[in-house]
């Protein structure tokens, strides 16, 4: 299962075969007044028995970590402990948290040392599907399993029969089931990142999930892989997208019928189990059509839950996000360079880029590769202002670009306005694509903008955006 990069954003869909659907339930933890979450070594049955279990890293000994559920406007209070032998942190991906709670080691907090702890506490103004993971150690800590889902339920949720999280993880395993230790490979960094040879859904390989005919599911899909992009095909079933990166969107069928989801991204879909009594519906990843495989299978029982699929409303209420003022926006041009088959900057900037490449930096934002968290900011924004970032991907690879601390609207792709003007915190850019995003810079602090292919981030594709009060 190797990463394919020779297709455009739409192009990979046109040759894909149409096949089927899936679901599975992770461990859930009740959201009380004080939660505890411990990063530790454990084991997981990633390969089908009787093959051996795999040593992994997990939160609380679970893989994935405990599913944390809250209601909108709740306050999270969580005591994090590190039982690993390496420093760590917890980043709350997609949540609009105060800077001191963002979990970026060395930038917003000191790393949590072995045997140490850290207290996270913040309000949850936005309903939606989010997740948590370390923000240090490159791809290794996430690649060894440290990830979990965080769900903030709406005050009045849409009606479904079951609300399930699907956390997708990608593993590079040795023949004996151990995780391969080549997390810093130069080849991965220069190409599509660390693509594994084994995929799990909620820690299980290819689960078979029982559903009742005409049961309605809300599937909260989380891509917790370090590099793999998924293009999920549900075959004869008809998924309806109702939220992206936790933010409600007008219910619609996914483009070309396939749910495309890059690393760090989430998609909430409503799915009716309409395959008929006794039938099976496989869910397949078609991102690389010549390497398609089954992620899971929905197994329909013989007793329908109801005579036909329900006609309940699927529209979610909006979150209280500050609308960007495009007429007053400050515009920034941001260009991504580097990697194999990418266009390098020319002229006066070329020698500086070559020097950075000699230091192991392979990816650049406006000609500069990130060196550390004390780099000068790419953008300095006055608090309350609207920022419009026109991003151009001059590389031969896909990049899921993630912004911390804010949620942005996707304004256009390749000069064409987006159909849904969706809110996101991570946008997937195809090779050579141009994307415009806009957001209200209302959350003060230093925030990372980076590629969520973590080998790309570690090799330079990261920058800071500073939001500050006017002086």
From TrEMBL:
UniProt keyword list: Capsid protein, Cell cycle, Cell division, Metal-binding, Oxidoreductase, Signal, Virion
GO annotation terms (biological process): cell division
Domain Plastocyanin-like: residue ranges: 51-155, 163-274, 356-468
Signal peptide range in chain numbering: 1-31
Single GO term (MF): copper ion binding
Gene3D superfamilies: Cupredoxins - blue copper proteins (2.60.40.420)
PANTHER family, A to Z: MULTI-COPPER OXIDASE (PTHR11709), MULTICOPPER OXIDASE LPR1 (PTHR11709:SF2)
Record-given protein name: Multicopper oxidase with three cupredoxin domains (Includes cell division protein FtsP and spore coat protein CotA)
UniProt organism field: Limimaricola pyoseonensis
């Amino acid at each position: 299962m190797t990463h394919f990069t020779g297709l455009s954003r739409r192009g990979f869909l046109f040759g894909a075969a149409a096949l089927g659907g899936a679901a599975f339930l992770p461990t859930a933890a009740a959201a009380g007044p004080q939660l505890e979450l411990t990063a530790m070594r454990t084991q997981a049955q990633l390969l089908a028995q009787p093959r051996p279990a795999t040593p992994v890293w997990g939160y609380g000994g679970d893989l994935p970590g405990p599913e944390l559920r809250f209601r909108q406007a709740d306050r999270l209070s969580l005591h994090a402990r590190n039982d690993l032998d390496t420093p760590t942190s917890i980043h709350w991906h997609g949540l609009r948290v105060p800077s001191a709670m963002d979990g970026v080691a060395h930038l917003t907090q000191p790393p949590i040392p072995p045997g140490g702890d850290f207290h996270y506490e913040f309000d949850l103004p936005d309903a939606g599907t989010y997740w948590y993971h370390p923000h240090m150690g490159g791809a290794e800590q996430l690649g060894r399993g440290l990830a979990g889902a965080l769900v903030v339920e709406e005050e009045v949720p849409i009606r479904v029969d079951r609300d399930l999280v699907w956390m997708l993880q990608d593993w590079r395993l040795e023949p004996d089931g151990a995780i391969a230790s080549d997390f810093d490979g130069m080849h991965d960094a220069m190409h599509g990142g660390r693509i594994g040879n084994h995929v799990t859904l909620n820690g299980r390989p290819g689960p078979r999930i029982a559903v009742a005919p005409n049961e309605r599911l809300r599937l909260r899909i989380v891509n917790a892989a370090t590099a793999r992009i998924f293009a999920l095909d549900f075959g004869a079933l008809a998924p309806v997208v109702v939220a992206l990166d936790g933010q409600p969107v007008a219910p619609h069928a996914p483009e070309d019928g396939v749910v495309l989801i890059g690393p760090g991204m989430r998609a909430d879909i409503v799915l009716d189990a309409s395959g008929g009594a006794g039938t099976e519906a496989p869910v397949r990843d078609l991102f690389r059509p010549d390497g398609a495989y089954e992620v899971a299978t929905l197994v329909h029982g013989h007793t329908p839950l109801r005579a036909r699929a329900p006609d309940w409303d699927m529209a979610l209420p909006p979150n209280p996000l500050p609308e960007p003022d495009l007429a007053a926006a400050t515009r920034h041009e941001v260009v991504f360079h580097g990697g194999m088959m990418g266009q390098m900057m020319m002229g006066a900037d070329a020698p500086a880029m070559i020097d950075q490449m000699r230091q192991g930096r392979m990816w650049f934002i406006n000609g500069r590769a990130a060196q550390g968290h004390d780099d000068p900011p790419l953008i300095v924004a006055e608090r309350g202002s609207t920022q419009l970032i026109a991003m151009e991907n001059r590389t031969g690879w896909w990049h899921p670009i993630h912004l911390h601390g804010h949620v942005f609207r996707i304004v256009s792709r390749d000069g064409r306005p987006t159909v849904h003007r969706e809110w996101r915190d991570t946008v997937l850019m195809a090779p050579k694509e141009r994307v415009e995003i806009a957001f209200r810079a209302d959350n003060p602090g230093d925030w990372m903008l980076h590629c969520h292919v973590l080998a790309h981030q570690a090799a330079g594709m990261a920058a800071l955006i500073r939001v500050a009060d006017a002086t």
